Amino acid sequence: MYFEDAFSHEVKQWTLAGILTTSSNVGTSMLGARLTPQVRYDYLHKFGVGTATESGMPLEDSGQLWPVDKWDAQTSYNTMFGQGLSSTIVQTAGVYQTLANGGKRVPPTLVESCKTRDGKTVVPKHGDPVQVVKPETAQQMMSMMETVATQGWFKADLVIPGYRVAGKTGTAEEVDPNTGLYRTDGYVNSFAGVFPADNPQYVAVASIGFSASVNDGSMAARIAFRDAAEATIRTFHIPPSTGEFTPYPIEY
């Protein structure tokens, strides 16, 4: 079995924050392999991957997360960096919401309540909140994602004066429907983030498919996220961030 990072580089002593910032598939796999496949599957499931969100949309896709007994050796590794599974954009937003909310995933909703003809209020059931990780773990992840946003080579695309942002880039190879294999010339790029990072209020996810190149799609996703965040800040009059952020070390 063979996999590599998306770019060539010399041997690096990256921290976990550095692995996230540089999107190192190799580093992610080296660390992820310390957990058993079943433990990783359980966490993915708790974060909502592979399960329909029941937000109220008809025919909602549940994404795909095969049970561990159907994982082969390759799937056991590539699920660590986003292959071998799929998620909807709402599920992806739910993962970031969980981390921004102290590790507690709150099922997304579109309809808060309804009134029947006789005037009774009916609240749709969307599922119960789930404590996925400890609050301190969620805060560490938020700090790592803020390190990504402030230390990555793309950091200039995410600057919103006065507001701290935490987030992560995403690059997925498109699947050829005729062969079921990953294409080498098609990508879906994304950026998902939380703002303000010091007092989380909103999560936004931008996804760009069928771009002219992987770099074009990645930049478009970051700019789309930033534009959406700035529009949200203006519309809902979100107060500016307070305090200074100290990034985690990238190397050790």
Question: What's the quick description here?
Answer:
This protein has seven helices and seven strands. The radius of gyration is 19 Å and the shape is globular.
Derived from helix and strand composition plus strand pairing, the structural class reads alpha+beta
- CATH-defined topology: Beta-lactamase
Q: How large is the radius of gyration?
A: 19 Å
How would you spell out the order of helices and strands?
HHHHHEEEEHEEEH
Largest sheet: 3 strands, antiparallel
CATH class: Alpha Beta
List keywords for this structure.
252 residues; alpha+beta; Beta-lactamase; two-stranded antiparallel sheet; 7 strands
Fold and architecture overview:
The protein has one domain: DD-peptidase/beta-lactamase superfamily (Beta-lactamase), CATH 3.40.710.10. The chain has 7 helices and 7 strands. The strands form 3 sheets. Strands 5-6-7 form a 3-stranded antiparallel β-sheet, with helices on both faces. The chain has a two-stranded antiparallel ribbon with strand order 1-4. 28% of the residues are buried. The mean pLDDT is 92.
Write the layout of secondary structure elements.
Blueprint: H1 16-22, H2 25-32, H3 37-46, H4 73-78, H5 89-100, E1 104-105, E2 114-115, E3 121-122, E4 130-131, H6 135-151, E5 166-175, E6 182-195, E7 202-209, H7 214-236
Antiparallel strand pairs: 1-4, 2-3, 5-6, 6-7
Helix pairs in contact: 1-6
